[in-house]
Amino acid sequence: xxxxxxxxxxxxxxxxxxxxxxxxxxxxxxxxxxxxxxxxxxxxxxxxxxxxxxxxxxxxxxxxxxxxxxxxxxxxxxxxxxxxxxxxxxxxxxxxxxxxxxx
Length: 103
Known about the structure:
By secondary structure, this protein is mainly α.
């Protein structure tokens, strides 16, 4: 009977540290395998690379559009740009046309 009491006291005294170690393993596993853990870091890095590539494409498109808007400024209209827009809108351009710059 004394052995049972000693065993029970030993189990109760080990319960606290066992729960602490279990909780520590739980947090460590979540830090490694969780949705924001170390294994997800590679996925975030890939997503960042893809987003930066898409941002570069969007910036290039924005710069192209900004250039076209600047060419349409009513105070200083570019004659070549006006000619291009008029021919495109009126359907007067042909696929076999060759543009020869004056300069």
